[in-house]
Amino acid sequence: MELLELARTVRARDPARPTWAEAILAYPGVHAVLWHRLAHALWRLGLRATARFVSHIGRFLTGIEIHPGARIGRRLFIDHGMGTVIGETAEVGDDVLIYHGVTLGGLSGQPGKRHPTVEDGVAIGAGAQVLGPITVGAGARIGANAVVTRDVPRGATVVGIPARPPGRDPCDEGSIGYGLTKQEVDPVGEQIAALRAEVAELRAELAALRRERAEKPAAPVG
Q1: Distance between CA atoms of 138 and 117, rounded to whole angstroms?
Q2: What does pTM read for this prediction?
């Protein structure tokens, strides 16, 4: 029975070590997966409006939105889960761990495959955005708030915006559940600093041109 399998997964993977009753009754990630199973079955039968309605009920009750067309493997553990969104053509393998605020979304409005494929044993930190028809290889780890738009190799760890492997600092190899890493380089900060320097340079050139124009004698008339 899948309910017991999901509850067993929660008890094994959650460091809070909940009781059976807690795992079955008080974990929205468990309920979200069960609602999705029903919605997905209806979707495959062609009852799409009914499937979407069932999915809507599941989202209302759990705060987790899983499109009925998405394919979800066994023993998915959505921890906390509030704000998690899984798109229509997403595929999630077995034994995947997803924290709250994660999006498995698309980058294109065109029909067809437009959401990620997440292979077995992947862990995705809180707030991460995994976008487009990319593949996250088995056993990979995605840091919190990372933005992933390219394939992630099997067993790799990626963090940041855009997502990339962390540095060599041993502290980077710790838990990424909430994306706490030590990074000496901030790519977004570097880009902002470069833009500020460019604006300052342009302002200096504009001021020089204005001075040159002010100092230039007026051309004689007639």
Answers
A1: 10
A2: 0.72
